[in-house]
Specification:
It contains five helices and six strands. It is mainly alpha-helical. The protein has three domains: 90 residues; 34 residues, no CATH class; 36 residues, no CATH class. A hairpin with a 6-residue loop joins strand 3 and strand 4. The relative contact order is 0.09. Bound molecules: zinc ion (ZN) (2 copies).
Length: 179
């Protein structure tokens, strides 16, 4: 399930901007002595941004499908609820953090603010982490994984605490991994 800001919310925000735009249009044309009428100004103000949204969204998705449709990373991103158009919209339309836009999970509120260069997201709690395969500082996800000193393979322990007690044999190079 995606926890990105709902697209309905983003579209509503755009519609609100159009609403204000319609008012401005009505006001400005009034000053200039052009009487376009209130309703046409409001309809134009709202339909303008929403029409532009539909048009540019279709364009972005088409380009995405044509250029990256064969890319497994792109397909996975789309399958997990990602949308290059909505995820690329600036605030205030889309107020999600970049980590949330890419990873799709809301970052947890904690005392610790991860450094800027931590770009991966914990798949369990959404916290920003330094490496894609290391233990999460927030929820501990990934602490059943260890990297083999011999060949660098990431190995998952078969039973809880096996790295600390018996050690785990690396399936790749057969060396014993023990923390
Ligand atoms: Zn986590
Ligand atoms: Zn190994």
């Amino acid at each position: 399930m995606s926890t990105r800001t709902s697209r309905l919310v983003i579209v509503t925000r755009l519609g609100l901007v159009g609403f204000i735009g319609g008012f401005l249009l009505f006001y400005l044309t009034g000053i200039l002595g052009i009487n376009w009428g209130f309703i046409p100004c409001m309809v134009g103000g709202i339909a303008g941004p929403l029409g532009l949204l539909l048009f540019s969204w279709t364009g972005v998705r088409l380009i995405g499908a044509v250029c990256y449709g064969h890319d497994p990373a792109y397909r996975k991103y789309i399958a997990k609820g990602g949308d290059p158009y909505f995820d690329g919209l600036p605030p205030p339309f889309n107020s999600d953090s970049w980590t949330q836009r890419i990873g799709g999970l809301r970052e947890p509120v904690t005392d610790f603010i991860p450094p800027e260069h931590w770009r991966f997201q914990c798949p369990r709690c959404g916290a920003r982490v330094e490496h894609g395969n290391s233990m999460c500082w927030n929820c501990g996800h990934g602490n059943d994984l260890s990297q083999c000193h011999g060949c660098g393979t990431i190995v998952r322990e078969p039973s809880f605490g096996a790295f600390e007690t018996t050690g785990v044999i690396c399936p790749n190079c057969n060396s014993v991994i023990r923390n």
